[in-house]
Write a structure and sequence with these properties.
Layout lengths: L1 H6 L1 E4 L1 H10 L4 E6 L4 H16 L5 E6 L4 H6 L7 E6 L2 E7 L4 H10 L7 H11 L3 H14 L4 H18 L2 H13 L2 H4 L2 H16 L4 H10 L4 H12 L2 H16 L4 H12 L2
Helix pairs in contact: 3-5, 6-7, 6-8, 7-8, 8-9, 8-12, 11-12, 11-14, 13-14, 14-15
Length: 272
């Protein structure tokens, strides 16, 4: 169960929903949506961003209200999307409709398990408002002040990747790799830190020509562009080229934030 908890992401069903709530040691964010709901799809990137900014502080459970109508009714959900915040198995707050990144960030900070660094809060707000240069300056200060905090390390790495994407300057990637390699051993074992190391390795190994899509991958972690391209290469290849395409795709899937999407590509890959 610990491995699952470290991912902080679950697909909620009525048969596991209450067990997840009871086992959680952090606040639980439950998003009720539906596949046909456009506002629900618009909310997804905001939730993904919130999880990347606040690692290990909030567990996210997504529930398809269309597939789980009884669960939605039990939780008093009448509008989609609806987001509930649970603590100790009980609802402590709720919001519904399409949210801005700022409102969602404020909502999460209000219910975080401990005090958030003011520098990290300012850095996160700057990043969300498109001020990546300011966010980087604040992140560097925050990490120098608290080098043992995984939140400070992860936000600094993410902002460096964003700066590389915006400026096309590989120096930011080099700085991120240096920060990761010199970070405390306890942080290097963190799953999200290991995932960033894999992303940068993949970038160095594979980004020879199409640099922008690879930068999009490492900053977003769930872009379908590259896995689609590599799966197509694998299907069309033979012999050693086919094996090389398979290896690259497996390495790519290890870097993806969306583990459910990665699992779908793995099934497609190994069924051929």
């Amino acid at each position: 169960m610990q491995d699952t908890l470290s991912a902080l992401r679950f697909q909620g069903r009525r048969d596991n929903f209450y067990a997840l709530l009871e086992s959680a040691k952090v606040p639980v964010l439950v998003e009720f949506g539906a596949t046909w709901c456009a506002p629900c799809k618009a909310l997804q990137p905001l939730l993904d961003n919130a999880l990347s900014v606040y690692p290990e502080r909030v567990m996210l459970i997504t529930v398809d209200a269309g597939a789980e109508p009884e669960l939605a009714q039990e939780q008093g959900v009448s509008t989609l999307p609806t987001v509930l915040l649970f603590r100790g198995g009980k609802v402590v707050d709720r919001i519904h409709g399409v949210l801005s990144q700022q409102r969602l960030g404020d909502f999460l900070r209000r219910h975080s398990t401990d005090h958030e660094s003011p520098l990290l809060v300012k850095a996160s707000d700057a990043l969300q408002s498109g001020q990546s240069a300011l966010a980087l300056e604040l992140c560097r200060q925050a990490y120098q002040t608290s080098p043992g905090r995984v939140e400070a390390l992860l936000l600094l790495i993410r902002v460096l990747a964003e700066r590389a994407k915006e400026t096309r300057d590989g120096a930011y990637i080099s700085e991120a790799e240096d920060v990761l390699s010199s970070s405390p051993a306890t942080l290097q074992r963190h799953p999200k830190v290991a995932q960033w190391r894999s992303r940068f390795w993949f970038l160095r190994e594979c980004a020879e020509e199409e640099y922008l899509p690879y930068l999009e991958l490492i900053t977003q972690g769930s872009s379908p562009y590259l896995p689609n391209r590599l799966l197509h290469e694998f299907m069309a290849a033979t012999g050693e080229q086919r094996q090389a395409a398979r290896t690259r795709l497996v390495q790519l899937l290890d870097t993806m934030e969306d583990r459910q999407l990665a699992s779908r590509y793995r099934r497609a890959l190994f069924s051929n």
